[in-house]
Design goal:
Layout: E1 2-6, H1 19-31, E2 36-39, E3 42-43, H2 52-69, E4 74-77, E5 80-82, E6 102-106, H3 116-125, E7 129-133, H4 139-143, H5 146-153, E8 157-161, H6 162-166, H7 171-182, E9 188-190, H8 204-214, H9 216-232, H10 252-261, H11 264-267
Parallel strand pairs: 1-2, 2-4, 3-5, 5-6, 6-7, 7-8, 8-9
Length: 268
């Protein structure tokens, strides 16, 4: 399997807290069937760009640990970029494998800021391929999954966490993850691994569950084919997203966004 969302850098963010924890996470990942990993440290504000040398040095340390332990794992560098109105994707860790295409993006869990739809659309128009990290965990999408459908329909790829599929973030998140799967609004499943227990890096159980629930073909695309395509900068395999017939809450906020940014042609 191929995991494009992990927090393996030791003592950098809220992921691995030591070299030994990184070593254990790599062991768990390999035992779970993962052979390719993208290391995606949190880039939470512009001060993190000043930590470029630290990120690169710790990424080299991860590769050194893999070599020392004889792991059959390839690693690539990326970042989990917290989106701001003036975010640019011009750093070596802004796009996965520095391919100038796929960027793993997040924003605050409690709301979809007004600038987000236009900013993501601007990335798409600039021929970037934004990947929205863990859409199933955002409160607006939990309340109304139509938001996720609209992101998918405008060309944003959606990456669901394996833990969400398995219910570690609660029943509401699991339910939304399943709804997004059923509506072809999931393009990649990744671990978002932070440790070896509560936020495990292992993908094995989730892949088995998805294969049993949604079929082996879909599991292969979500855990293997599409994440590898993201690393290579190739087009993902995407099915036409299925509209949500019923929504939990009126989309007043989204309607205001469309009016403010003149996004009728973007979101429909």
């Amino acid at each position: 399997m191929v995991d494009i969302h992990t927090h393996l850098l030791p003592e950098y963010d809220d992921g691995s807290q030591s070299v030994e924890e990184t070593r254990k996470m790599l062991e768990v990942a390999e035992e779970g069937g993962t052979h390719t990993i993208v290391v995606t440290p949190h880039i939470l504000d512009f001060s993190d760009y000043d930590r470029k040398n630290e990120i690169l040095q710790k990424f080299e340390l991860v590769k050194k640990i893999i070599k020392q332990d004889g792991r059959n794992i390839k690693v690539y560098l990326g970042g989990e970029i917290f989106l701001f109105p003036d975010t640019e994707l011009n750093q070596v860790f802004s796009t996965i494998n520095n391919n100038g295409k796929y960027a793993l993006i997040e924003f605050g869990m409690r709301q979809i800021p007004d600038f987000v739809p236009q900013k993501l659309f601007d990335f798409v128009m600039a021929e970037y391929k934004p990947i929205l990290a863990h859409p199933e965990r955002y409160i607006p999408i939990i309340k109304n999954p139509l938001y996720a459908y609209k992101f998918a329909n405008m060309g944003v790829a959606l990456q669901v966490n394996s833990g969400s599929i398995m219910g570690i973030f609660g029943s509401s998140v699991k339910e939304v993850a399943h709804e997004l799967m059923e509506h072809n609004c999931v393009h990649i499943i990744a671990s978002d691994g932070h440790n070896t227990n509560s936020r495990t890096i292992s993908l094995g159980l989730a892949r088995k569950y998805v294969a049993n629930t949604f079929g082996e073909e879909k599991a292969k695309i979500l855990f293997e084919t599409n994440p590898m395509k993201a690393i290579k900068g190739e087009d993902l395999i995407k099915e036409e997203p299925i509209p949500f017939d019923a929504v939990r809450k009126k989309l007043g906020t989204w309607d205001k966004l469309k009016q403010k940014f003149n996004l009728e042609n973007i979101f429909g």
